[in-house]
């Protein structure tokens, strides 16, 4: 869990809470958290209200959500908050909504196996990435290969 000063958990703050079925569930704080409170008052995305128990002594508060403008970023290092729920959510959005199997995390390429053949490895794609810098186009294994080739030649 992320350790935050209590003043950062105000009404309308969006957070991630653990969920046994979905792993992480998005919620919004609907009542300011005050130091010593034993619960957070949350509204889930399906509009249900939930009291989330917290241990004030351990000060384990939920992870903060990234702003919507950062959802689907092609480089995880661009996220404001880089933790498990943020990474999983970003990868899920990129894969399920945008059909992108590749995402950068700095100079590392993260790949999700789609378990099917995709038309992203043809000669035209090779030519598109040829001569390009790694961050100029969408993340792809060909961008990493081109960067490695340039560095080797240099």
From TrEMBL:
Ranges of residues in domain Myosin motor: 71-154
Domain Myosin N-terminal SH3-like positions: 10-62
Keywords: Actin-binding, ATP-binding, Motor protein, Myosin, Nucleotide-binding
InterPro entries reported in the protein's UniProt record: Kinesin_motor_dom_sf, Myosin_head_motor_dom-like, P-loop_NTPase, SH3_Myosin
Pfam families recorded: Myosin_head
PANTHER family: MYOSIN, UNCONVENTIONAL MYOSIN-VB
Protein family (similarity comment): Belongs to the TRAFAC class myosin-kinesin ATPase superfamily. Myosin family.
Species of origin: Phrynosoma platyrhinos
Protein name per its UniProtKB record: Myosin-Vb
